[in-house]
Amino acid sequence: MTARALIHMPASAKAGEIVEIRALIAHPMESGYRPGADGKPVPQDVIRGFTCTYEGEPVFAAELHPAIAANPYLAFFIRASVTGTLEFTWRGDNGFAQTERKTLTVSP
Length: 108
Description:
Blueprint: E1 5-8, E2 12-14, E3 18-25, E4 47-54, E5 57-63, E6 73-79, E7 84-92, E8 97-107
Parallel strand pairs: 2-8
Antiparallel strand pairs: 1-3, 3-6, 4-5, 4-7, 7-8
């Protein structure tokens, strides 16, 4: 299963500049406690973790839990140092995993 992920960040920055990254993924974050149309609980289906790496080095990570609303949105900052790839990975129940990549071009 793939979900729609939206990542907002600048395509370029100056070396040393602080860059805001905003990441949202469309996911129901089903807690497992809500009854479905048939009255039976809807099976739990949540994203458990998020990581962001910058040229292979981890720069941000978060643990997510069933109490988090659907379509989890995360915002964080990094310091631009080198031109490279940022890799965003979400992992969850039922083998859910999704990775997106964005390139940040850094000028001196």
